[in-house]
Structure formats: structure tokens, C-alpha cells
Amino acid sequence: MNTSDRWLLPDGIDEVLPPEALNLERVRRRLLDIFAVWGYDYVIPPMVEFLESLLTGTGRDLDLKTFKITDQMSGRMMGIRADITPQVARIDAHSQNKKGVARFCYAGTVLHAQANNMLASRAPLHVGAELFGDSGSQADLEIVSLMVESLHSLGMPSVVIELGDVGIFRLLVQQLEIPSETEEKLFALIQKKAMVELETCVQALDLDADHKRIMLELPGLCGNAEVLARAEGVFGGYPQIMQRLASLGEVAQGIESRFSGIQIYYDLSELRGYNYHTGIVFAAYLGEARRRVAQGGRYDSIGSVFGRDRGATGFDVDVKTLAKFSTITEAKRPVVIAEPGAGIDDLPRWEKIRELRTAGYIVLESGKETVPHDFSLNQYDGEWQLTKIH
Q: What is the DSSP string of 200-247?
């Protein structure tokens, strides 16, 4: 490597510098403080785990994103985490094993072998919350409400919530007995809303005309609240899907009653995390920027491989993205530059510096400082006093 290139970072690997780093940390602290008052216990999972544990129940997508390494001590394959949720599921099932509902939150960097898009970081900082032990709509309402409340606390009142349910497509595929290889093709086309290709694929299936019509209507079930009414007309003959629509409506109604004026967008063909999620999926967008800043969903039974099969729902946010839009600030601390003392161990000067720092001042006590400052600490008649800089 050329010595002039030694400072370069790998593609998608970024560093956060002042003052953005402080803002990012401020956002991280605010989120964790909110999670705490909602009853979520903080956990710190390890950066690496054995691969079979790390990728449990997550599907192929996460596998492709995970860096693999060989453990020199055991010879087993390990992975550098690309998502923290599976780790928290392991903690719930094995390390904690609490009776009843368990709530956990976390904050940590993950590493992606492949970036989500050309502009995305491969080392995002994720903060999230997970709720285990409740499969009902009330748990979904709690976790979505926590997501919204978290964003509001960061000065983001104009939030659009997107709601969907991957279980609708999953149940439809099962009841129509569509083979797995065709399911994957349908999944890809519906996600892209590629209607021409989707119609060609559906028309080639061995289904009656009514079932083909239902499959083709799924990508169009997106928009405002009237989507649920239209969906009930489409899926009237599928009781399990109707039950899911009713649950989705309950969650939406709860969100609207708790957060006055919030916008809700429905997309029943949103299959993000299809191999991972089992029911409701949701995301939060900033209304003006149309940037997705948080996402989550239900992923029941992820802990079954660890010996604990139960309900699970949660969400996470990419703090690096979120911090760019946060409007929270802290009062600016006055900066003091202390002039040199009589010697390197000038106790009166040191005591005054400690006093000022305790009072909230930023005190710079060494070096030839040229940074902007508000006060200087000078010695007058044997005493150290503050002098205001005009």
C-alpha cells in the first residue's frame, strides 16, 4: 500500500468526528433513557458469536450481510454481528429466561459485509428495543408507540408510520398451495411492485381466476385507512387473513388515539424481512424528508432453537441517520483557558479548575490554546480568578 493511502478507510466504513460525534452520543443517551422509563432493561451483547447462534431464524439476507471468521481457539465459525436482535432473542431464551413478559434494549455498532445501498454505512450504530412473551396486538401497540415517542423526544414531530403484515402474503401462499420456488419469485415481484411481470407469473399458475385476481390485487393494497376496507373485500373468504387485518386495525387505532395528527400509511404488500418477520411490520419516516429512520416488526418463535418458543416484537433505529435530523441540543458550556501556574503541581490552581469543571465549565489547562473561549483563569494577588473575554 502506498503510504499516502494509509489514512483511507474501507468503502462504507466511516468515522464520526466532532461535533457530530457528540450529537450522535446525545441521541443514543436520549433513546436509552426513554427505553428505561418504559421498563426496558439494557443489555450489551458481544460483537462476535458462533455463527449458528448469530444467524438463527434470520434467513438468507442476514447471512449474506455477516462477516465470517474462524475462532482460533475452537476452530468453529464465528460471525461479526450484522444485527443485534437475534442476540437479544438468545439472551431472552437462555441467559435471562424470565417468566412472563421480558423487555430489553441495546445500543451497539453492527458490521455489514454488504451495504444496504450505495450511500449506506456498513458499520451503523443501532439502538433498539425488543419485547418478548406477548403475541397480542397490545404488545405491538406498545412497541410502535415507543418508537413514535422516541422520535418525538428527538424533536421529530412530523413522523409518518407505515404499517403492514407479512403474514398476509404468507397465509395466501400457504392456502393457495404455491410451491416454494414460485413463492420466492412472487415475493420478489411483489416487493418491486413489478405488475407486468407479476401478472405474467400469476397467469401461469395453476389457480382459478378468483385466486389469481386476489394475488394480483395485493401490491395495490397501499395507501390511507381505506386500504383496510378494500382488503376486507378482497380477503373476505380467508378468516385468518381477516383476523390479521383486524389486529392491524386495532394497532392503527391505538396509535391514532395516542398521537394526535399522526399520519399512517398502509402497505399490505410490504414484505421487508419476510424470512425474518412473522406478522406486523412497521417503519417510521420523516414526513418532510421521506427518510426511513426506524423499522421493526413481529418475529415470533425466533427463540425456539434456544428452547423457548414465544412471541417477540421490536424495532431498531440507525442512530447515525437519526442524529442528522435530531433537533435536541444542550446548553453551550462556557470555555475557560487557564494560564500557566507557578509550577507543574500548583495546588490552588488545580483546586480552582476542579471547582469550575464541577460547576459546568469546560477548562483547558495545558498547551498554547488558540480555540475560541469565554473566560480566562488568571492569578491576581495570589488568587485564581475568572476574567471575562470581551
A: HHHHTSS--HHHHHHHHHGGG-EESTHHHHHHHHHSTT-HHHHHHHHH
